Fold each of these.
Amino acid sequence: MADKCCEADAIVVLGCRGSAALRKRLEIGIRFFEAGAAPLLVFSGGGGPLPEAEFMRRAAIAHGLPRTALLIDRVSGNTFENARETARLLNGRGLRSVLLVSDRAHLLRATVLFRLAGLQVTGQAGVPAPSLWRQVGATLREIVALPWSLLRALLPFGSR
């Protein structure tokens, strides 16, 4: 499950379109929280009539996690926005370090974008793809997405 785990200010669970994948990410985030990896859980992801972040927040509360330990970003529609909005949420509280939870193939790009947003990524937890075929597809998608994400993060229009 965990590629690397360290103490952090917050555990950030990134949203995704598939409900099964989202649940796996959420389960990992909750496990890290319960193990004391960080005092806060940040759920990041918008979209749909019920944003991914709100779905995760409700599930975490139903699991028994305290509302005061949960922060949500309901507006992000992509990884660049996840990083930017999470940085805004945490910077406002004087926090900087995060443990990222996402799919394994996505962690490299997410880590780069979160660092460019000014956050320190102290650990990662990657959800494995359900099959080799999906892993290959996800890796190819990330190879294509990385240059665009970097361009967006580094150019002035990316800061909006």
Note: Strands lie at 2-4, 10-14, 40-44, 70-73, 97-103, 120-127.
Amino acid sequence: MIDETPIREWLAAYRHAWLTDDRQEIARLFTSDVRYFTAPYHAPLEGIEAVTGYWLGERESDIPWSFDHQVLAQEGDLFVVRAVTSYPEGTSEAEGPETFYNLWLVTLDADGRAREFVEYFMLVE
């Protein structure tokens, strides 16, 4: 049985931080020693400053997007989330609509902050 309350609260806060690109809201999502993996075979970002710098550099609050998700599994403090992210006008790296399938592995601490975040994503052609 999945206790979705912690991850649902975290996902709601994540979504709000994504909408606002507010440095403090981003920092509240993660532990001070967070490991944030942005892509396979890349070293993780480590610590709040690295994560907020990366996040703010993406500037996704400036472009329209939608995000739908489903919590697939929980094993202790690890949650598996499947999501679809759509950019109807594209991103800063692409012109035209883009949709990504996402799989996230989110490990939460007792306070509900992520101490590890791993994202896998695939562009839908």
Note: The mean pLDDT is 91.
Amino acid sequence: MLILRDVLGFSARETAETLDTTVASANSALQRARKAAEERLPAESQQQTLRTLGEERLRELVAAYVDAWERGDVEAIVAMLTEDAVVAMPPMPTWYRGPEAITVFLRDFAFAGPWTGDRFESGRRRVRLVRGRASGQVALGAYGWDEGRGAYVPYALQVLALRGERIADVTGFVTPAALPAVGMPAELAADA
């Protein structure tokens, strides 16, 4: 309803016809949708959160996250999360909510071993994260070591959403082409 009315600009009549309902029902649904959306809005926007933190504190938080991710330190990462944090990887239907579920994901999948070009294997893990921005938010390009190429190659773009000084959401786009698309390198040298 919100998309049809508030984004696409359909009239109540057009919306009702599209959804095969009455104008009164369409208007009522729109009121409920607007109320539900308003209730779910954060207290402050992500941009306001980043401004409130300031560049120095944001740099410290991101550096701590990068360090923990590159070391595969599950406990340190989970300690940085809000209690209701979510890790999602669109378009895959996979997502994890809360510290317990995220711990299992990190331990059993994300940090299972070195990057092989399409997944991590058990054993030694070599990963690098590069900070950037995507849609005005903190973004991190994730690169895994490719022995055959002798370089770190992209495997995911992580976009972080913060609430205060904690991470509320990590959206991981497991799409290597996304990194150069947001201005990150196509690969990193061995000494990166």
Note: The mean pLDDT is 87.
Amino acid sequence: MDEHKSEVVKGFTQKYGVHSLVYFEQTEDVGAAIAREKQLKNWHRKWKIELIEKVNPSMGRFSRNIA
């Protein structure tokens, strides 16, 4: 989280100024996490927003509560 907020690594977060975590999923292993990330990247924006709103209707930041 700190790397994303401080924009230490060049990439999506730095390019678009994304600093709020509004959705996350926990998985059993890194392989499952990568597979899910690839799946979500192929989704339409509308589908992603609907998924976020199911678990976080106010789109509040989770990042304040994550260590």
Note: The chain is about 50% helix and 0% strand.
